[in-house]
Amino acid sequence: MALFAVEDLSFRYPGASRDALNHVTLEVRAGELMTLCGQSGCGKTTLLRHLKPVLAPHGVRSGRVLLDGVPVDEVPEREQVARIGFVMQNPDAQVVTDKVWHELAFGLENLGCDERTMRVRVAEMASYFGIQNWFRKDVRDLSGGQRQLLNLASVMALQPDVLILDEPTSQLDPIAASDFLATVRKINRELGTTVIITEHRLEDVYASSDVVAVMEEGRLALAGTPREVGERLRAEGSALVGALPAPLRICYGVRDARAGGCPGGGPSGDAAGAGAGDASVVPAGGRDAWGADDPAGPAPLTVREGRAWLAGEVAAHPPAVRALPDGAALDEDGHPAAAELEGVWFRYDRDAPDVLRGTTLRVPEESLFAVVGGNGTGKSTMLRVLCGTLRPYRGTVRVLGKPLGAWRRGELFRGGVAMLPQDPQNLMVKKTVRADLEEMLDDHGLSAAQREAAVAQAAATADVGALLDAHPLDLSGGELQRAALAKVLLCEPRLLLLDEPTKGLDAAFKAKLARVLRDLAASGVTVLMVSHDVEFCAAHADAVALFFDGGVAAANTPRRFFASNSFYTTAANRMSRGVFANAVTDEDVIALCTQK
């Protein structure tokens, strides 16, 4: 019997024109690690919330969800809390107390555990998750990665049978995200806890999954082993191929290039289709599973497998060139600056430690400039200083050629600077997306027709035209991010500040976002974005800077920057290092493999 069984589940939000879930039938067996993926708005979060009734959204539902054969709605609430653990996307959304140790004990107290049991469970969780060194800290002093790890530890203190995670790494830097997902895999392997996780960044979870389930427009489109799902998506030419781990994407790209550009290994795509859903597909797994029956070799899932595959590929098809030119170094003085910080120091409270520590940064006009770095290093604070919502106590800030203090109140934001914050919900204050967008056009002196055209244009750019009449709180994380982007674009800024703009976005819209940002830069807009998405930065930025300890540790062009790093780099670079030089994107590796 399945631990969870979803039987013909359909659901529609109030006032929605279509079902968010459309006759979904799915089984999750005890001990499995299932990854649920799909484009933004496909119903992933809605489905997960139906697995824990206290989080189920309001609306019209048919079908049922069973837990060990019992309708989950009929399971006593105390048993639901104890058996079904849920970790949300936003680390701050789940924290309810002030101290770390209070947070670890909170759920146990609510279940009425005795003091001895609580002490043992809290001590065990603190030790297992490595929380001892910050056990008595205030929660507000933790980084985003630490808060999310605390949420996970607090849930696991209840000893749940199933752990449900909804985009848990969306706000974490690459290293913290990798560590967090490694802990999730450890919980699954060592404790036997069933794990159901949704992720847009699949690099660290896809290969470890027993089952990958793909959702599309509210329905379950596909489920199988990682390799089965990858081959089927490739055969169908799905946009989700762009979300697969880099080793898979590179392998598929090389095979398609060698076959003349046709997915599926030949003109008709038969090679991929033949193995997409039958027993001949090699299952995900250990050393024996990789490199088995397929005469072409199964596609690699991990960087380790990718390195082995690439070595074999290079041996079979020796490339004429093994290195890409690293290009010119970053020219920091070649263009006028749209934004400058020089020796900037900032702290939130008089007695608090400095967040910005002599920060110096120069962002050239009409460029797409990316800043990467760990959680808590000061990146978001730097953006808020640039837009004037925070005032440093030392240093110089220049925006669009003028000292920040020379801008008159409100003038800076009238066609000057606009910022998309890390939490887009902070921007959405109306009852519909349309009303939120129209708010940005107040006092512009536009006619009704002009306002409607401007809203329609922004909605089309951000791909939220179908969501204009939806309530912002009913949107998925990715949809909300796109709606907030549309609202910001209506400001028509000359300096656009973006804090984690790709958070929650699927691969298809990331590609569209890249085109939008490049078009903005070409039209004279300067884009400064803080991002944990190193693949996006490597592929599309003009320059990349590493933020560390309240300042800029290094800045260079993407190829020079990522080719010299070991951890803050792309999976394509880690996979090809030692075989190719200066390859930092999938396209770089594919081009070197298939050059004539």
Number of helices: 19
Terminus-to-terminus distance:
54 Å
Quickly give the structural class: alpha/beta
Q: How much of the sequence is in beta strands?
A: 15-25%
Oligomerization category of the chains in this entry: single chain
Please outline the major beta sheet: 6 strands, mixed
Mean pLDDT score, rounded?
A: 87
- Radius of gyration (Å): 25 Å
Helix content: 25-40%
The main sheet orders its strands as: 6-7-8-3-9-10
**Spans of at least 5 consecutive residues with low confidence:** 264-295
Specify the overall morphology.
globular
Query: What's the total count of β strands?
Result: 20
Account of the protein in words:
The chain is an alpha/beta fold. It is 34% helix and 20% strand. The strands form four sheets. It has a six-stranded mixed beta sheet with strand order 6-7-8-3-9-10, sandwiched between helices. Strands 16-17-18-13-19-20 form a six-stranded mixed beta sheet, with helices on both faces. Helix 3 (100-110) crosses helix 4 (115-128). The chain starts with a strand and ends with a helix. Mean pLDDT is 87; it is low at 264-295.
